[in-house]
C-alpha cells in the first residue's frame, strides 16, 4: 500500500518535509521594524541605533531587511559585517567604516578621490593610533562638514551604515565609537550596530564578558537600542509553517516552541534535524511529528554548540554536568564540583561564564529553609540555573558518554531518594524540632525548587532510565512503574515507553517481568508503537511464563492480532485466522480461540468467526473477565450478518463489577466504534455515560468518528491528517476503513474531489485485505459528483458482490441506497426499484433509524416520477427522523432533498444552509445557494457568499478539474464556469490557473477568503 507523494495530497504515510529558508521576511518583528524605521527617518532621531538580541534570534536577518527597505526608499546603505577573527586586529572596524564612508563620499562628489583619507586611515590602523583614527572616523561620519576641510559637501542623500555582529569587533574600534559625540552629527549619516548579546526578560543586557565593550555603546549620549525578543507561540507556529511550507499541527507547534523558546535560529536547527531524518511527515499541506520521534541533537558546527565549545574549560565540564543535574537547583553546584573534581570556585566560574554568554539562565528567588544561596550579579539570591534553550540542554546531555550519563543520573537519583527518605523519617517523629523552619523548606525536595511536581516526577523517572543498574533495582522499578501508571491512557509519548522498557530490563523475577511486559505492551499499543507490541506479545505467546494467567495470555493474543492488522500485514493476519498457526503455541485454548476469532473478524470473515465462537463457547464463556471480548466479537458478527439482537443485548448489559477498568474501557470502545460506524450518535452517547467515559477519553480514531458524526469537520480533518500521516488507519470495527472513507466524504463535501479519490487510492491493498463498504460508498459518491455514473455503478456492484460472497448485510444499506439513486438518475427505473426492494428488506431486518432514513430518501428519489405523493410523504417522514437523530450533515442533506422535491417549505433551505456552514461543506453550500435563488429566497451574507464561491472555484481548479468537470460538479454550464473564472481572474489580478492553484495551496487569500 504505497502512499502517493505530494504535499497537497492527504494520503497514508504523507511525505517527508523539507526546510525552506528562502522566505525570511520580518515575521513577528513588526513592532521592532516600525520602531527602527521611525528612529532612522526622524531628523531629530538618534545617530547611533543599537540592535541587540540573543544568539539565533534573527538579528542579521532583521538588519538585512532594514537595509533592503531603506534602499527601496532611496537611502544609501553601506554594510559592514564583523567576523570572529576581527577582535584580534585593533582598529579594524574603525578602518572599514572610514573607508566605506569615504569611498561613498568620493563617488557622490565624483571628482573627489577617497585615496588620501583611506591612506591616512590605513596608516592609523598600522600604528594603532587611536587618536588619529578617532579624528578620521569623526570626519567620515560628519557628513555636514567639508570633506577636505576646504569646501562644502555635495550631499547625495541620507546614508545608513549597518554594522552586523559587532560582538566580534575589536575593542579599540568600539572605544573610538564610544568617544564620538553623536548628537552633534548631522542627520545625513546614521549608524546601526547589531550585536549578539544575552538579553534577560526585562530587556536589560546580560553580562558581556570582561569589558562589556559593545554594551557600553548603549550608554553613548544620543544612542537608542532596539531589542529583538523571542517569538511568541503564534509567531513561532507561523515560522514553522513558513519553513516547512506546511501548517504544523498543534502538537508539533507546541513542541517546537517548548524546545526553542521562540528563538528562530533554534527553530531552524530543530526542524533541520528532524527533516534530515524524514521524521516530519506532511499530509494535505499539514506537518506532523510522531509522539515518539526523538529530539535531534545539534551538530558540532551549530551556532549553539560552538558557542559552548568556544568557552573551553571549566565551562564545558560544568555545562555537561548541569545538563543532567540542573533540576536539583542550588545543590547541583556542590555535586558538580564532586563529579568534575573541580573546586567550588572553578565550578562557580564555569556557571558564571555560561550565564554571561547566554547559554544558562539564573533562576532568582529564595528557597524556603535554605540559607547562604549563591548571589546573582545584582546581589539577589539564586535558587538554581536552567539552560536558556531546552534544545541546547538536550544536545549537551546527549553528547555525554553513556557512562557519564549513567553516573550523573545515579547522583541525581541518590540525592532525590535521600531527600525522600529524610522526609519519611521526619514524618515518623512528632518532636517539635522536626517542624521548625530549617526542615519546612525541605518537604518540597531539591527538584521542586526548580520544577513543578509533575515535571519533578518525570525528571526522576528519566534519570532512573539513564542510570541503568547503578542503584537499587527494586526501588528503581517501583519508581518507573509508578511514573508510567500516572500517565493518562492515550497520552503515552517519548518518556512513558522508555520507563516501561527500562523497568522490564531491571526486573529479575520472571513473573514480575512478564507482568511488566504486558503493561509495557498495552502502553505501546495506546501510543501506536505497533512493532514493540508485536515483538512483546509474540514473545509472551511463544514462551509464556508460569506467572501469566489465562486472562493475560488471552490479552496478549488479542493484542498480537490487533497490531498485526494495524500494520496492514494481511498475509500474516490470514495465517492468524487459521487454527494451525495457534496450535503451535503453548498457550491455553481460550487464548487461541480468541486470537483466531479476532483475526477472522479483522478479515471480515464474519460467518466463520460466528461459527468458531459458537462451536467453542464452552472454551471462552467461562467468566466475565475472559468471556466479554469473545462475546462482543460474536455479537458484532451476528450484527454484520443481519441479526442485530445480540448486539443490542450487549449494549444494554452493564459491565459486571469484577471487571477491571481497562477491560471495561476496551469493551466499551469496541461497542462505541460500531455505533459510530452505524451513525447512531444517541446510542453512542448513552454507552459512554453508562460506562463512565467521555469523548475526550477515547483514542484518536474514535474521536475522529465522533467529530465526523457531530459535524466538527475541521477537528475531524486535523485528526485524520495526523492519523493517516502516521499510518494509524485501522478502525477496530466491522468496517476497518472508516477513517479514509469518512475523510474522503468530508473532502468531497468541500469540493476536493481529487483529494478524496487519492485518500482511497492510497488504501488499496492486496487480495487478502478485507472489503470496506464505506470506502466503496464514498468512492461511488465521488464518481457520481463528477458525472461518471457508469463508474459509480461498477464500484457499488463490486462492493455488493463482495458482500454477497461473505453473507454481509450490515453496512450494505449505503451501497443499495446509492445504487438505487444512481440507476434512477441513469433512467433505469426498473433496476432502481429492484435495488429499493433490497434496501427495504435490509431496513426491516436491521430495524435501525439509519437504514430507515436511507430507505426513505432513496425511495423518494426513485418514486418521484411515478408516485410523487408517496415520495413527498417519505421525505416529510425523513425530515422528522433526521431531526430526531441530530446529525448535522445527515439532517442538512435530508432538508435539501425535501425542499428540492417540494415536500416542505422552501425555508428548509435556510436551515440546511446553516448546517452546511457548520460543517464547512462548501460544495453543498453552493448547491443550496443555487436552490435558494431558484426558490426566490434571499441568500444571506452576499459578501461571504461571493468569497465562498470564489474559494470553491479555486479549490476545484487546484484539484486539477477541467472546466467541463467543474461545470458537472457545480451543476452549471461550461459557459457559466468560464464567466466565473474570468471574474475571478479580474478581481484577484491572477492571470493563470497555476496562480490560482498556488494561492489556494499557500492560503494567500487571493483566491477567496472562505475555507
UniProtKB/TrEMBL annotation:
GO biological process, any: regulation of DNA-templated transcription
Name listed for the protein in its UniProt record: AAA family ATPase
Domain HTH luxR-type as annotated: residue spans: 943-1000
InterPro entries: AAA_16 (IPR041664), P-loop_NTPase (IPR027417), Sig_transdc_resp-reg_C-effctor (IPR016032), TPR-like_helical_dom_sf (IPR011990), Tscrpt_reg_LuxR_C (IPR000792), WH-like_DNA-bd_sf (IPR036388)
Keyword Nucleus recorded: no
GO MF terms held by the record: adenylate cyclase activity; ATP binding; DNA binding
Top-level taxonomic group: Bacteria
Amino acid at each position: 500500500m504505497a502512499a502517493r507523494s505530494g504535499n497537497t495530497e492527504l494520503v497514508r504515510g504523507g511525505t517527508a518535509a523539507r526546510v525552506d529558508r528562502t522566505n525570511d521576511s520580518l515575521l513577528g518583528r513588526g513592532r521592532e521594524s516600525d520602531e527602527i524605521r521611525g528612529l532612522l527617518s526622524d531628523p531629530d532621531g538618534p545617530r547611533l541605533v543599537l540592535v541587540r538580541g540573543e544568539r539565533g534570534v534573527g538579528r542579521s536577518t532583521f538588519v538585512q531587511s532594514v537595509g533592503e527597505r531603506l534602499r527601496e526608499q532611496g537611502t544609501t546603505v553601506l554594510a559592514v559585517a564583523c567576523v570572529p577573527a576581527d577582535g584580534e586586529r585593533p582598529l579594524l572596524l574603525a578602518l572599514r567604516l572610514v573607508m566605506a564612508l569615504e569611498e561613498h563620499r568620493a563617488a557622490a562628489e565624483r571628482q573627489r578621490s577617497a585615496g588620501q583619507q583611506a591612506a591616512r586611515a590605513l596608516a592609523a590602523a598600522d600604528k594603532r593610533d587611536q587618536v588619529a583614527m578617532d579624528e578620521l572616523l569623526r570626519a567620515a561620519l560628519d557628513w555636514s562638514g567639508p570633506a577636505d576641510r576646504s569646501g562644502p559637501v555635495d550631499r547625495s542623500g541620507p546614508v545608513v551604515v549597518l554594522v552586523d555582529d559587532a560582538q566580534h569587533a575589536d575593542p579599540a574600534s568600539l572605544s573610538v565609537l564610544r568617544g564620538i559625540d553623536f548628537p552633534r552629527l548631522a542627520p545625513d549619516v546614521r549608524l546601526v550596530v547589531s550585536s549578539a548579546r544575552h538579553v534577560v526578560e526585562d530587556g536589560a543586557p546580560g553580562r558581556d564578558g570582561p569589558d562589556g565593550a559593545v554594551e557600553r555603546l548603549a550608554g553613548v549620549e544620543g544612542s537608542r537600542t532596539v531589542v529583538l525578543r523571542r517569538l511568541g507561540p503564534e509567531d513561532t507556529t507561523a515560522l514553522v509553517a513558513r519553513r516547512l511550507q506546511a501548517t504544523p499541527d498543534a502538537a508539533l507547534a507546541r513542541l517546537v516552541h517548548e524546545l526553542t523558546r521562540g528563538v528562530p535560529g533554534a527553530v531552524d536547527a530543530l526542524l533541520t534535524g528532524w527533516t534530515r531524518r524524514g521524521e516530519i511527515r506532511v499530509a494535505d499541506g499539514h506537518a506532523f511529528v510522531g509522539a515518539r520521534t526523538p529530539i535531534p541533537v545539534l551538530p558540532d558546527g551549530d551556532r549553539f554548540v560552538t558557542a559552548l565549545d568556544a568557552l573551553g574549560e571549566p565551562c564545558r565540564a560544568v555545562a555537561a554536568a548541569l545538563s543532567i543535574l540542573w533540576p536539583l537547583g542550588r545543590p547541583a553546584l556542590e555535586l558538580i564540583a564532586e563529579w568534575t573534581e573541580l573546586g567550588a570556585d572553578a565550578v562557580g566560574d564555569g556557571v558564571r561564564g555560561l550565564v554571561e554568554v547566554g547559554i544558562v539562565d539564573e533562576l532568582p528567588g529564595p528557597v524556603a529553609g535554605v540559607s547562604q544561596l549563591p548571589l546573582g550579579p545584582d546581589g539577589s539570591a539564586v535558587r538554581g540555573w536552567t539552560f536558556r534553550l531546552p534544545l541546547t540542554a538536550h544536545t549537551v546531555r546527549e553528547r555525554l558518554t553513556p557512562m557519564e550519563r549513567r553516573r550523573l543520573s545515579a547522583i541525581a537519583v541518590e540525592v532525590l531518594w535521600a531527600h525522600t527518605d529524610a522526609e519519611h523519617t521526619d514524618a515518623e517523629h512528632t518532636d517539635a524540632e522536626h517542624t521548625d523552619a530549617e526542615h519546612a523548606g525541605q518537604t518540597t525536595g531539591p527538584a521542586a525548587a526548580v520544577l513543578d511536581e509533575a515535571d519533578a516526577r518525570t525528571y526522576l523517572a528519566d534519570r532512573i532510565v539513564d542510570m541503568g543498574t547503578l542503584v537499587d533495582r527494586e526501588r528503581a522499578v517501583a519508581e518507573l512503574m509508578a511514573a508510567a501508571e500516572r500517565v493518562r491512557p492515550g497520552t503515552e509519548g517519548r518518556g512513558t515507553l522508555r520507563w516501561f522498557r527500562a523497568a522490564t530490563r531491571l526486573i529479575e523475577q520472571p513473573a514480575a517481568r512478564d507482568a511488566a511486559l504486558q503493561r509495557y505492551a498495552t502502553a505501546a499499543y495506546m501510543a501506536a508503537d505497533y512493532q514493540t507490541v508485536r515483538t512483546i506479545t509474540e514473545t509472551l505467546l511463544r514462551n509464556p511464563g508460569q506467572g501469566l494467567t489465562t486472562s493475560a495470555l488471552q490479552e496478549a493474543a488479542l493484542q498480537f492480532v490487533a497490531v498485526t492488522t494495524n500494520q496492514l500485514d494481511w498475509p500474516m493476519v490470514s495465517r492468524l485466522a487459521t487454527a494451525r498457526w495457534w496450535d503451535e503455541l503453548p498457550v491455553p485454548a481460550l487464548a487461541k480461540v480468541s486470537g483466531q476469532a479476532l483475526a477472522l473478524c479483522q478479515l471480515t470473515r464474519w460467518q466463520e468467526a460466528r461459527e468458531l465462537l459458537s462451536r467453542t463457547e464452552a472454551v471462552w464463556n467461562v467468566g466475565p473477565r475472559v468471556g466479554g471480548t469473545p462475546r462482543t466479537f460474536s455479537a458484532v458478527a451476528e450484527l454484520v450478518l443481519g441479526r442485530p439482537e445480540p448486539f443490542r443485548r450487549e449494549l444494554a448489559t452493564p459491565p459486571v463489577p469484577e471487571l477491571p477498568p481497562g477491560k471495561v474501557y476496551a469493551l466499551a470502545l469496541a461497542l462505541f466504534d460500531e455505533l459510530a460506524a452505524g451513525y447512531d450518535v444517541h446510542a453512542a452517547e448513552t454507552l459512554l455515560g453508562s460506562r463512565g467515559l467521555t469523548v475526550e477519553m477515547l483514542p484518536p480514531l474514535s474521536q475522529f468518528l465522533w467529530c465526523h458524526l457531530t459535524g466538527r469537520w475541521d477537528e475531524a480533518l486535523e485528526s485524520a491528517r495526523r492519523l493517516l500521516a502516521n499510518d494509524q488507519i485501522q478502525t477496530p470495527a466491522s468496517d476497518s476503513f472508516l477513517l479514509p472513507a469518512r475523510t474522503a466524504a468530508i473532502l468531497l463535501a468541500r469540493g476536493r474531489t481529487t483529494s478524496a479519490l487519492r485518500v482511497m487510492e492510497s488504501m488499496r491493498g492486496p487480495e487478502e485485505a478485507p472489503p470496506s463498504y464505506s470506502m466503496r460508498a464514498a468512492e461511488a459518491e465521488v464518481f457520481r459528483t463528477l458525472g461518471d455514473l457508469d463508474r459509480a455503478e461498477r464500484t457499488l456492484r463490486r462492493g455488493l458482490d463482495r458482500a454477497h460472497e461473505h453473507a454481509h448485510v450490515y453496512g450494505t444499506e449505503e451501497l443499495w441506497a446509492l445504487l438505487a439513486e444512481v440507476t434512477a438518475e441513469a433512467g433505469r427505473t426498473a433496476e432502481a426499484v429492484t435495488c429499493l426492494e433490497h434496501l427495504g428488506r435490509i431496513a426491516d431486518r436491521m430495524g435501525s433509524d439509519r437504514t430507515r432514513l436511507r430507505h426513505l430518501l432513496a425511495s423518494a428519489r426513485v418514486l418521484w416520477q411515478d408516485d410523487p405523493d408517496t415520495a413527498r410523504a417519505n421525505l416529510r417522514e425523513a425530515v422528522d427522523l433526521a431531526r430526531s437523530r441530530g446529525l448535522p450533515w445527515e439532517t442538512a442533506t435530508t432538508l435539501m432533498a425535501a425542499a428540492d422535491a417540494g415536500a416542505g417549505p422552501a425555508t428548509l433551505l435556510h436551515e440546511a444552509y446553516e448546517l452546511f456552514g457548520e460543517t464547512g461543506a462548501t460544495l453543498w453550500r453552493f448547491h443550496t445557494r443555487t436552490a435558494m435563488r431558484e426558490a426566490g429566497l434571499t441568500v444571506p451574507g452576499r459578501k461571504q457568499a461571493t468569497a465562498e464561491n470564489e474559494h470553491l472555484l479555486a479549490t476545484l481548479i487546484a484539484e486539477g478539474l477541467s472546466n467541463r468537470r467543474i461545470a458537472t460538479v457545480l451543476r452549471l454550464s461550461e459557459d457559466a464556469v468560464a464567466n466565473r473564472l474570468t471574474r475571478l481572474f479580474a478581481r484577484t489580478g491572477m492571470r493563470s490557473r497555476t496562480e490560482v492553484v498556488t494561492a489556494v495551496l499557500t492560503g494567500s487569500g487571493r483566491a477567496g477568503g472562505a475555507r
